Amino acid sequence: MRYLTIALAKGRLADKAMEMFEAIGISCDEMKDKASRKLIFVNEDLGVRFFLAKANDVPTYVEYGAADIGIVGRDTILEEGRKLYEVMDLGVGKCRMCVCGPESARERLEHHELIRVATKYPNIAKDYFYNQKYQTVEIIKLNGSIELAPIVGLSEVIVDIVETGSTLRENGLMVLEEVCSLSARMVVNQVSMKTENERITAIIKKFQAYLKENAGR
Ligand code: PRP
């Protein structure tokens, strides 16, 4: 039997996803050893293997078929724009993509002024401002701690993920506009969906049953 390969976005999401896979009977004890530097984990009995990758790389692995299935946030799926099937909302990692900034930026935003937008998600920001709002802005790509940008004067606003809102609050910033809602998704390679249809469909069905059972918990 060919291995079914599953790519998980490293970090919090991977832990949650593994819990879910375990609950539906696809476990991988090898993966629980946090001290290990191993990158790929195999369950020989089930013919399944997991690997951890940087979130942004998960859609790439899935598009090229190096992974049949991926678990990754919708933010990354939208940003990467890869060819793949998004088959399920896992209902975890819920948060929002927002335009944020100080109160003083609200008016400039509303008046469609040529403002600077700092973000880790230039494609999502471009799509939002150019295609949805028809607003010309200057987009500045950053790689983390995006909230710093308006504080030190790099940009007027940011496009970033808001979960609890505490990072914004602690830095005197607020949500000015909402771009979209986000959560963890299961994605599938388009060819694997045909060639491994039975195994992949079985996993999707088990996940759906698990999610239904645990709804509202
Ligand atoms: C994310 C995001 C915000 C923060 C939002 O950052 O970019 O900074 O979480 O969460 P909150 O609304 O609950 O405060 P992350 O921790 O992923 O690090 P980053 O700075 O590398 O983006």
UniProtKB/TrEMBL annotation:
One of its GO terms (molecular function) is ATP binding. Keywords: Amino-acid biosynthesis, ATP-binding, Cytoplasm, Glycosyltransferase, Histidine biosynthesis, Nucleotide-binding, Transferase. It catalyses: 1-(5-phospho-beta-D-ribosyl)-ATP + diphosphate = 5-phospho-alpha-D-ribose 1-diphosphate + ATP. PANTHER family: ATP PHOSPHORIBOSYLTRANSFERASE (PTHR21403:SF8), ATP PHOSPHORIBOSYLTRANSFERASE ATP-PRTASE (PTHR21403). Lacks the C-terminal regulatory region which is replaced by HisZ. Heteromultimer composed of HisG and HisZ subunits. This is ATP phosphoribosyltransferase. It comes from Enterocloster bolteae 90A9. The gene is hisG.
